[in-house]
Design goal:
Elements lengths: L4 E3 L4 E4 L2 E11 L3 E8 L5 E9 L2 H15 L11 E7 L2 E9 L6 H10 L6 H20 L2 E2 L8 E3 L5 E3 L6 E2 L2 E4 L1 H14 L15 E4 L2 H16 L5 H5 L4 H4 L14 H10 L10 H16 L7
Antiparallel strand pairs: 1-2, 2-3, 3-4, 4-5, 5-7, 6-7, 8-11, 9-10, 12-13
Helix pairs in contact: 3-5, 3-9, 5-8, 8-9
């Protein structure tokens, strides 16, 4: 369950026998907070994710996130440095110590470019996409799916190396659905754990006789690619306007007319966002397509941004 944690004086904590100083708050969500801390032993900065566990099920989910992190030691998946579970009266908190990536998320980068009224050049899009795919392949190869892939769940290091994070929604890649009860269970879970504007069509209305597989991630990956190309996800505005995303995803994706990106990249986007999951490629096929695109983009002059 990890080492013991004690909250000491002057804003310091100890996790697994190492001491860290609190620096500042980085952000917060519905049931979690992220703080910037500095390791006394090494002078490095870390992100401390604190998950509030009101019920036993919350604690179970937090431990699940820890276990998912432990499965991987991959350059494109955010590693877990340390963790612990502490008791606070009748409640619990799960503390996950993670590397601090100063630059922030892929979404931060997309917003910066959009505010400058410019776009990410194709060679950079392809390079970042390739790194995301390698991390996703590692997850799929272990028999899991991420289930909540989106630009805010991809960190970008200074060299543009992407890191997949927020593994709390990960579960088994293949889910066999037999009967309406199981279908509703999966659908309800997806509505709570999979971000609506990046959720694949098959998770909005789950059939009572089907197999949900890791290609839900391929749809989400397509949405991430779209956001890098056009400055927002394909269904972000639909959600923000209050229109039905569930209805919108039942139609083939409409790619804005542009002369910035090659036909090969646009065709890959359309392939990943096939409404029928059986028509979507697996991650290895996506990587094969990217391998064809990379020599083309490597030879192009990059646009300075």
């Amino acid at each position: 369950m990890g080492g013991t944690l004690c909250i000491c004086s002057r804003g310091s904590i100890t996790i697994e026998n190492k001491r860290y100083f609190f620096v500042e708050k980085l952000g917060e969500g519905g049931f979690s907070y992220v703080d910037l801390v500095e390791g006394v032993h090494d002078g490095r900065f870390y992100a401390l994710k604190r998950i509030l566990c009101h019920e036993r099920e919350d604690r179970k989910e937090a431990l699940h996130e820890v276990e998912m992190h432990r499965l991987f030691n991959h350059p494109n998946i955010l590693r877990l440095e340390a963790h612990c579970i502490i008791e606070r009266g009748s409640k619990w908190e799960a503390w996950l110590l993670l590397p601090y990536v100063k630059r922030g998320t892929l979404w931060n980068e997309v917003e910066i470019l959009r505010d400058k009224n410019t776009f990410m050049p194709e060679d950079r899009v392809v390079r970042i996409l390739h790194g995301i795919c390698l991390g996703l392949k590692a997850i799929h190869d272990r028999g899991f799916a991420h289930r909540d892939l989106k630009p805010t769940n991809v960190l970008l290091e200074d060299n543009d190396r992407p890191l997949l994070m927020d593994l709390g929604s990960m579960n088994q890649a293949c889910i066999e659905v037999t009967g309406s009860r199981k279908a509703m269970e999966v659908q309800d879970w997806a509505s709570q754990r999979c971000t609506i504007s990046y959720r694949s069509p098959e998770l909005f209305s789950v059939s009572s006789d089907c197999v949900i597989d890791e290609r839900t991630d391929i749809w989400s990956l397509g949405c991430v690619l779209y956001s890098m190309m056009f400055g927002e996800g394909p269904y972000d505005m639909i959600f923000q306007k209050g229109d039905s995303v569930a209805l919108a995803v039942q139609n083939n994706i409409s790619i804005p007319e542009n002369d910035r990106y090659s036909q090969g990249l646009q065709s890959l986007l359309s392939l990943m966002m096939a409404v029928n999951p059986q028509e979507r490629p697996y991650i290895s096929t996506v990587i094969s397509h990217i391998d064809v695109l990379q020599p083309m983009t490597d030879g192009q002059a990059t646009t300075k941004i």
